[in-house]
Predict the 3D structure of the following.
Amino acid sequence: MKIKRILKWTALALLVALFLWFQIAYWTSTNDCARITAAQGDTMKAIVYCDYGGPDVLKLADVAKPVPNDNQALVKVRAASVNPLDWHYMRGEPYVMRLGAGLRKPEDIRLGVDFAGVVEAVGKNVTEFKPGDEVFGGRAGAFAQYICATEKALVLKPDNMTLEQAASVQIAGLTALQGLRDKGKLQPGQKVLINGASGGVGTYAVQIARTLGVHVTGVCSTRNVEMVRSIGANHVIDYTKEDFTKGTERYDVILDLVGNHGLLAVRRALTPEGKYVMIGGQKGRWLAPMDTVLRAFLLSPFVSQQMGFMISKHSKEDLTHLRDLMQAGKLTPVIDRAYPLRDLPEAIRYLETGRARGKVVIAME
Ligand SMILES: NC(=O)c1ccc[n+]([C@@H]2O[C@H](COP(=O)([O-])OP(=O)(O)OC[C@H]3O[C@@H](n4cnc5c(N)ncnc54)[C@H](OP(=O)(O)O)[C@@H]3O)[C@@H](O)[C@H]2O)c1
């Protein structure tokens, strides 16, 4: 009896402590906005956001121009690309991501990852690149005139691609490659379905899947059917006319960039040993899309099919592989439209409609 009471009061005390800690952490969480945007001396233009919110929180500001350390190259950014990740950080949604990004305000007030540009200077340990080289890659803070990056984060741009095309590769290209090859483990001759084939990741996935020697079915709306076919899909399903989960075809891998079908429905469209690779999900402030991820995780051990979520990671080797595919003419980034840096809020507003056809890029003036 006594032990039970002690446990009850201990649990209650822990809950109260957790609640108080959260309140204190929330109300004291802050960022360096005032200092960063009042930079003196050598400055550059960059996008900053001091608070979470819609695209109007994004401001063009003068911030300190970065100086490369011994292991970094200074790159003059000529183009960057916009990803859903950027608006997740901008809004701080789903809220769970604020545990890492800042509870009340963003800890890092700079935004953007994908970029391409020209090397302006290199640190003394940098041997792979020299001033004047055109490079692309990914690093936090890409919506800016300059960025410093290590050799690991950079790859030489193929000469048959524009800087805007190269700037669109990092997140979408790596996600498509790792989702199909590593998580989907696609083998030549297999069948893959790509749900969301006309978007940023989807347009890479369709082309990369073809290089893996598989039969590709893309799912998109009527206006994108021809485009998805033109980049290599063997078959295209117009989701406004047909629901792929209700058809008779079975797929070895479903790469899902939309997450608009229930897990049971998706299972019906998989072969008995098929793999469901969740990449994207429905928008939500609280749990979504984590609730579907959790359900897939719980369901997977009890069914013959594999169901799981994948988060892409940076890999210089994979980025180099994508560069080689582009150089060989087997992969061509699909660019929807370009905006100048000062119009980044418009670019994000457009991406948030969920109607982008390929990648949305930022072209530096
Ligand atoms: N896990 C990771 O590591 C990772 C990495 C990158 C991206 N993601 C996630 O993956 C998702 C896709 O990213 P993205 O960059 O490709 O986004 P995106 O470019 O904004 O995707 C837009 C495309 O989605 C298509 N779409 C919208 N509703 C659809 C539906 N019901 N059925 C089929 N297609 C539909 C649209 O085609 P229509 O106009 O024809 O409808 C449009 O072309 C996002 O949720 C993103 O957060 C995850």
User: Anything to note?
Assistant: Residues 229 and 335 are 16 Å apart (CA to CA). The longest strand covers residues 72-82. The chain has twelve helices and 15 strands.
